[in-house]
Structures are given as C-alpha cells and as structure tokens.
Design a protein that fits this description.
314 residues; mainly alpha
Length: 314
C-alpha cells in the first residue's frame, strides 16, 4: 500500500484531484456567477499592472539565479541560465516540496559539478525561506493580533522580533556560521556529502549574502504589490489588507505539507479564508489568487516543459 501511494503517477493524480476538489469547492462556496461577474467587471488597468509585475518578478528570479550560478561558474551564459531556471521550476512543480528543482537544474548544467549546483540551490531555497519567515511571519502576526486577539499575547511581539533579528543576522553574516563549521570533527568534514557545504564555505561571503538578501527581498515586494494590483482589478482592497493577506498566504503555504498539485487550490482557499475573516469580498481573493497562480506558476512551468521538449529533440 505504501509503495502504491509513493508511485509518482498515483501521487500526482491524487494531488490533481485534491487541487480540483479545492477549486471546485471554493467555486461552489463563492457561487460561480459571482466569480464570473467579478471577472467581467475587472479593471483592465490594474490587471495590466499586475501582469507587468508578474513579468518583473520572473526577470528578478532569472537574475537572482544567474547571480548564484556565476558564483560557481563564471562562464555561464544567459541562455543556459534561462534554461536551468525554467526547467528547474517545471521539475519542482511536479515533485513534492519542489525537490525536483534540484534534478532539473543539475540536468541543465552537465558541465558543472553536481555538488556545486546542489549547494547554490540550497542557498537559493534557504534565503527564500528566510524571507518567507520574516515577511510572511510578520503578516500573519498582524492578522492574528487584529482578528484573533483572544489568541494573541503582547509578549509574542517581542518573541517574534527576537527571532526575526536572529534570522536576519544569520543570513546577512553567514561567515559567522562558517567559523562554527570549522570546529566540526575531520570525520564529518571529509565525508563526501560535506563537499556541498564546503562549496558554500569557499564561495559564499557576507557581500554575497547581502546581495542575495536584497534580491530576495525585492522579489517579495514585487509579489506583494502584484497581488495588491490584481485584487484592485476586481474591487477595492486597502493596501494594508492586501499585503497582510498575501504575506500570510505565503507563510502558510511554505509550512504546510504539499497536498495539492503545485499548491493550486491551497493558496486560493487560504486567501479566501483571510478575506472572509477581514470581511472583504471573497471573490476578489479567489480571482486575484487564481491569476497569480497562472502567471507565477503555470506559465513558468509551461515554459520549462517546452524547453525540456526542445532539449530532448536536440
């Protein structure tokens, strides 16, 4: 039975069913006609700005990945970076916790050592997760302290501030961590798996950390604004409410198990919950979230799939 559910085809099929079930349940709950009318009355100006920001965040993603690649290989071209980014994105879409992204990026760079590609991919994900904790955690804390005040303790604010400060210091000054790694016993440092950590020790310095942190933060700002403008296309939502909602959604999505296909249905359901709690139009949350899923997930995955077909043909 365990092997049955671990089969890639079976697990993918189950996730597709869950995604369709969540989306179908939401449409039934929200009323399909309400959602359709909301789309019909959408403001093109805000939709255009939102989609422009979606393109901008993909561009920043590209340059962010190229920056990491050039830490391990100076002669990487824009074409190779483009291919590895989208192929990795596509592979991550079809695998739990986006683990396939590692394989996709490795396959896209046969001339680069696997340990090097794995190392910078780990750094990529760590900084993304760190900013998710900082920005998403802040948004969720604001939401709970406002709408679930009975569960909120003022001391939580100080605890969160301390934890956020620790995360920021660690990720802006990674060389402090390297000093601790040097104290590890030789038996661990000589292990073949330690080669990936050794790559980070040798190439990733504080100045690189600051640059990557800034680029990741810029990405988050673009994503937050993208959601705000897409929400504005379907009705009025204050900037503060939109930012709290999308930040909280990103945090929740990052910490729950990958139960659906590409998180489809999860982000939409979570956004609807936050909007309902804030007494806002839930159709706005659904429409903005579904467009973000299309622009930020489905389109890059489709580009990656086309690149894979092209590589196979060649």
């Amino acid at each position: 039975m365990k092997s049955f559910f671990s089969n890639p085809v079976v697990s993918t099929t189950i996730k597709i069913i869950i995604s369709l079930g969540l989306l179908g349940g939401l449409l039934y709950y929200l009323d399909v006609n309400t959602v359709i009318n909301s789309f019909k009355n959408a403001k093109p100006y805000y939709l255009f700005i939102g989609l422009l920001l979606a393109i901008l965040q993909l561009v920043i993603h590209f340059y962010r990945w190229r920056y990491l690649l050039r830490l391990v290989t100076k002669e990487i071209s824009n074409k190779e970076t483009f291919t590895s980014f989208f192929v990795g994105f596509m592979a991550g879409f079809f695998t739990p916790a986006q683990l396939g992204e590692f394989a996709g990026r490795i396959a896209s760079h046969p001339n680069v050592k696997k340990s090097h590609v794995i190392a910078i991919t780990v750094v990529d994900k760590l900084y993304w997760f760190a900013l998710t904790l900082i920005i998403g955690g802040t948004g969720l804390a604001m939401f709970i302290s406002t709408y679930y005040i009975s569960y909120w303790n003022p001391w939580y604010r100080y605890l969160i501030t301390v934890l956020m400060s620790i995360v920021i210091v660690i990720f802006l000054y990674p060389e402090k961590i390297k000093e601790l790694l040097l104290q590890l016993p030789p038996s661990i440092r000589q292990h073949r798996f330690y080669e990936m950590i050794e790559v980070i020790e040798n190439i990733f310095h504080n100045k690189n950390a600051w640059m990557l942190f800034f680029m990741t933060f810029s990405l988050y700002v673009i994503i937050l604004l993208e959601y705000y403008f897409l929400a504005q296309a379907f009705g009025y939502v204050s900037l503060n409410d939109a930012l709290v909602c999308v930040a909280s959604v990103l945090f929740i999505k990052a910490i729950i198990l990958p139960i659906s296909f590409g998180d489809l249905g999860v982000r939409e359901s979570t956004a609807v919950f936050f909007f309902q709690t804030m007494r806002l139009d839930t159709a706005i949350a659904f429409n903005a979230s579904i467009i973000m899923s299309f622009a930020n997930v489905i389109v890059p995955t489709a580009i990656g799939a086309l690149l894979v077909l092209k590589l196979k043909k060649n």
